[in-house]
Design a protein that fits this description.
This protein has 135 residues and is of the alpha+beta class. It has one domain (4-132): Roll (2,3-Dihydroxybiphenyl 1,2-Dioxygenase, domain 1), CATH 3.10.180.10. The protein has helices at 15-26, 77-86, 123-132; strands at residues 4-12, 32-34, 38-43, 48-54, 69-73, 90-97, 105-110, 116-121. A hairpin with a 7-residue loop joins β6 (90-97) and β7 (105-110). The longest helix is centred in the first third of the chain and has 12 residues, at 15-26. The two termini are 24 Å apart.
Length: 135
């Protein structure tokens, strides 16, 4: 069911400082940016995505888990989301299309143990997977 880590998201109140810090740490500049809201880096052997999101977009309810969300690529976000809920998880974030027509769709749940589990349909993940398979 979980196909591989798709995106790790971190929240930062000082988005520009976080971008600079991660750029220095990783030795690369972000490849994608939404001014004032989001920076994304590609890192590692499979060019996994590390996203820095403006803190104002972080879940704000202090009574529920929040913070970093690891999004696992799945083939069917809706079906996986339903299965997780059927298994006793609760909604953390509902299914959200991230940019009309881009193919990026996310959702997250809180598992029965209090952990946030993110799922995602991620065309970048599929492209990297296709490139890594022998012809």
């Amino acid at each position: 069911m979980l196909r591989g880590m798709a995106t790790v998201n971190y929240f930062a109140d000082d988005l520009e400082a976080a971008k600079d810090w991660y750029s220095e740490l990783l030795g690369v500049q972000p490849y994608f940016a939404v001014p004032g809201g989001y920076y994304e880096f590609r890192v590692g052997d499979y060019q996994a995505e590390l996203g820095i999101i403006a803190g104002r977009f972080a879940p704000s309810n202090p009574d529920v888990p929040g913070g970093q969300i690891v999004n696992w690529h799945v083939d069917d976000v809706a079906a996986t989301f339903r299965r997780l809920l059927d298994m006793g998880a609760t909604v953390h974030e509902p299914i959200i299309e991230r940019g009309e027509g881009t193919g990026f769709v996310t959702a997250s749940v809180v598992d029965p143990f209090g952990n946030v589990l993110g799922i995602m349909s991620n065309p970048h993940y599929l492209a990297i997977l296709a490139e890594s398979r022998p012809a």
